[in-house]
């Protein structure tokens, strides 16, 4: 089982038998997500010379001790508002989701930590769906821990030379996992073992690893014998043995510097009461288990967290429900389909949020277009009045099409809007034209000219982007246009209005207004830029209005082109770029100097690295030459967060900034290259060093890989969709609305028996009560069967001391 998280912060864990790690999910892409909306107040010590009135502050998000994102710097305020959206996958287990507040230092080498909020994974559910103020806690090195240790304890009886019997406690330190990075690199860990009253014992130091294998055993005699000579032999009455406690501490060997505490765990000997042997993993804890005196008033941080948890079962368990959902586009009428029934029964509780996993599931299986066509036809059929009102409300059809556009249209928005949005953010020209909101010294004519210039650039970019529109969006818009013309044949403009409702009002205008939500910008805009974006967005919305469509021939031509068949992207656009460490391709095989800091950049046509951002490329790899993109084992170079780009020459080995960026690079590069001919089916998960592959010990560098490559999906749908997870989400929505499902079943039965009885049916869309009743009965059987699978598996636990 595995875990997913989403929210405001929105955190949705998903437990997966086949992939045991947590991740956080984006509500539009289904990708894991942290969405952070927070503010701070009264930052810094409550009094004294260290009051942070004149310092700039920022906030970071960390998984345990690994920083994955940070907000922009907030200027000179002790009560800043951080409004940020971060979407990312968590590709490894974690203990704490932490938020650190820092003061930006102008003169010191390092930024000054003000305080932190750390929420343990198992406590996230406590803050579900509501805003909470958290008191900032001091940033104490002894409380910054992560990882776990594998221990085995035994209690043996020994017969001494004179025939007396003593008891001996045997403690084996087997291994650790997930220890933190130290200064960005793997640590040099060792463990100490202490039994109350005895000498401390120590393992050997393991070099450059976060997952050390110790396999060292230590012995403690816990009752006096005639051989008593030193502190490793001490007297404890037999009945007091259960009061003893083993303490295991993990440290990083600092060589010439001070050793760094990595965490500890304490295990009572009484755990051996029923069995003379105990073997278990234990989560590392802060020193003294995190107990501390009351801290100074460091301020508070307001966070909003939503947390749900799903247990994802083996794939065969979902076959019946998945097949039932995939049949939905073929059911007549569409309102009797399982997908439509789900939207109907969940409308009051979660709106149409329950439809996102349905959209993703149908999209993955290439069944989304017929479903969208059917639900759009149903909505048009129910539109009784003016044609200019079609697709303007929040309905099942509009929500499904919205979700589709956000999923498949991300690259389209990047191509169309990102360059002009970057210009708006960087030039920061004033565009206020409301006389009431003008500042002193503003010139309304200059502002109007600035606004017109921005609107012209945005509109020009949209009109010239036809070739970039995803094929699925083109197919849906063409279908909408045909349906609208058929429903209102006397209205010449309705075919354009049906498309403009989505392309302008629900897609481009929304993306301009909130570019951070679509990953077009990293941070929220400041108030002045936000106002500019609002004015531009309103103008874009007006382009889709009924009046504009009837007067503006250019807009109509644009909509016709959007309905035409999509073609491949012709323009070059940057998809992703970050600073990384790249292994040099020269003769040196080992050593820190063999990794150099570089700016890595990928477009839809090439991957290149540069000495610095904006500098000339040092190396260019055409996307068409990429044969595979895979993770690299940590042991290859004793570095975390490594991945490899396999192409026609030597593999490119890259270390990303953190685990989240590693996954982003692999995802992006896999997407742009998945159509390439000659993609590999196997790869080497480690490096070729010292004349052999470290993974399989083969000496021939050209030997085919020893591990299957990660499966790729259809190139026209560049998404990594976990169908089991999506089906589990569908199951959870059905399960939480079983009472509504029963009411809908009763309504169908009532309509069949008592024709014309409508009162209890008004909450549902029931066109054919018999067909709908049949679907609901089948759903009930499938849901009961899936619930039985969940009950038989039971809940997973990650408690300390579990086997």
TrEMBL record:
GO biological process: intracellular signal transduction
Every PH domain range: 573-674
One Pfam assignment: C2
All copies of domain C2, residue ranges: 13-134, 145-282
Keyword Oxidoreductase assigned: no
Residues covered by the Ras-GAP domain: 358-545
Keyword Repeat in annotation: yes
Database matches in PROSITE patterns: C2, PH_DOMAIN, RAS_GTPASE_ACTIV_1, RAS_GTPASE_ACTIV_2, ZF_BTK
A molecular function (GO) term: zinc ion binding
Keywords: GTPase activation, Metal-binding, Repeat, Zinc, Zinc-finger
Protein name, per record: RAS p21 protein activator 2
High-level lineage: Eukaryota, Metazoa, Chordata, Craniata, Vertebrata
């Amino acid at each position: 089982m595995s875990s997913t998280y989403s929210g405001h912060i929105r955190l949705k864990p998903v437990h997966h038998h086949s992939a045991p790690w947590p991740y956080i999910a984006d509500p539009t892409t289904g990708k894991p997500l942290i969405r952070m909306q927070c503010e701070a107040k009264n930052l810094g010590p409550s009094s004294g010379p260290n009051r942070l009135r004149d310092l700039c502050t920022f906030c970071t998000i960390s998984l345990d001790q690994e920083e994955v994102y940070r907000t922009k710097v907030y200027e000179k305020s002790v009560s800043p508002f951080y409004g940020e959206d971060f979407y990312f996958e968590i590709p490894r287990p974690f203990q704490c989701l932490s938020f650190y507040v820092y003061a930006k230092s102008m003169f010191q080498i390092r930024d000054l930590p003000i305080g932190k909020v750390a929420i343990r994974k198992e406590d996230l559910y406590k803050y579900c769906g509501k805003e909470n103020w958290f008191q900032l806690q001091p940033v104490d090195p002894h409380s910054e821990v992560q990882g776990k240790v594998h221990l085995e304890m035994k209690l043996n009886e020994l017969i001494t030379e004179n025939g007396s019997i003593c008891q001996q406690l045997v403690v084996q330190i087997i291994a650790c996992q997930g220890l933190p990075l130290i200064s960005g690199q793997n640590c040099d860990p060792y463990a100490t073992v202490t039994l109350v009253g005895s000498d401390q014992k120590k393992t050997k130091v393991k070099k450059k690893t976060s997952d050390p294998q110790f396999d060292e055993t230590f012995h403690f005699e816990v009752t006096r014998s005639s051989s008593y000579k030193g502190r490793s032999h001490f007297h404890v009455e037999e009945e007091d043995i259960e009061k003893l406690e083993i303490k295991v501490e993990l440290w990083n060997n600092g060589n010439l510097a001070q050793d760094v505490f990595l965490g500890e765990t304490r295990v009572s000997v009484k755990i051996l009461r029923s069995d003379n042997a105990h073997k278990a993993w234990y989560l590392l804890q802060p020193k003294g288990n995190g107990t501390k005196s009351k801290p100074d008033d460091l301020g508070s941080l307001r966070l909003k967290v939503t947390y749900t948890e799903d247990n994802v079962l083996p794939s065969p368990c979902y076959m019946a429900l998945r097949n039932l959902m995939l049949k939905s586009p073929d059911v007549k009428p569409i309102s009797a389909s399982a997908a439509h029934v789900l939207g109907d029964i969940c409308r009051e509780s979660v709106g149409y949020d329950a439809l996102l996993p349905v959209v993703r599931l149908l999209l993955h299986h290439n069944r989304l277009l017929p479903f969208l066509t059917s639900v759009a036809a149903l909505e048009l059929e129910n539109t009784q009045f003016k044609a200019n009102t079609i697709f303007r409300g929040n309905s099942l059809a509009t929500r499904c099409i919205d979700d589709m556009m956000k999923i498949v249209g991300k690259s389209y928005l990047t191509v169309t809007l990102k360059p002009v949005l970057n210009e708006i953010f960087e030039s920061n020209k004033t565009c206020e034209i409301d006389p009431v909101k003008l500042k002193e010294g503003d010139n309304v004519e200059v502002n109007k000219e600035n606004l017109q210039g921005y609107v012209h650039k945005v509109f020009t970019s949209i009109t010239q982007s036809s070739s970039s529109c995803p094929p699925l969006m083109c197919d849906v818009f063409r279908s909408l246009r045909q349906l609208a013309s058929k429903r209102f044949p006397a209205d010449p403009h309705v075919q354009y209005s049906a498309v403009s409702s989505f392309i302008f009002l629900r897609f481009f205008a929304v993306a301009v207004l909130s570019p951070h939500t679509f990953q077009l910008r990293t941070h929220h805009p400041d108030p002045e830029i936000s106002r500019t974006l609002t004015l531009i967005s309103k103008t874009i919305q007006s382009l889709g209005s009924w009046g504009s469509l009837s007067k503006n021939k250019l807009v109509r031509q644009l909509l016709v082109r959007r309905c035409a068949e999509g073609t491949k992207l012709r323009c070059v656009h940057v998809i992703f770029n970050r600073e990384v460490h790249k292994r040099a391709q020269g003769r040196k095989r080992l050593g820190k100097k063999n990794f150099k800091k570089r700016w890595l950049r990928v477009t839809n046509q090439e991957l290149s690295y540069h000495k610095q951002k904006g500098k000339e490329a040092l190396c260019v790899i055409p996307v068409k030459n990429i044969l595979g993109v895979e993770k690299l084992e940590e042991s290859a170079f004793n570095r975390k967060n490594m991945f490899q780009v396999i192409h026609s020459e030597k593999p490119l080995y890259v270390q990303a900034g953190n685990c989240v960026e590693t996954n982003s690079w692999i995802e992006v590069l896999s997407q742009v290259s998945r159509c390439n001919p000659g993609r590999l089916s196997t790869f080497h998960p480690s490096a070729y060093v010292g004349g052999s592959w470290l993974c399989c010990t083969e000496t021939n560098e050209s030997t085919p890989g020893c591990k299957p490559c990660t499966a790729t999906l259809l190139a026209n749908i560049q998404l990594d969709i976990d169908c089991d997870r999506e089906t589990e989400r569908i199951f959870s929505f059905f399960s939480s609305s079983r009472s509504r499902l029963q009411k809908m079943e009763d309504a169908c039965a009532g309509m069949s028996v008592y024709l014309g009885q409508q009162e209890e049916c008004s909450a549902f869309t029931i066109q054919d009560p018999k067909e709908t009743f049949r679907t609901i009965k089948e759903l009930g059987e499938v849901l009961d069967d899936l619930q039985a699978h969940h009950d038989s598996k039971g809940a997973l636990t990650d408690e300390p001391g579990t086997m």
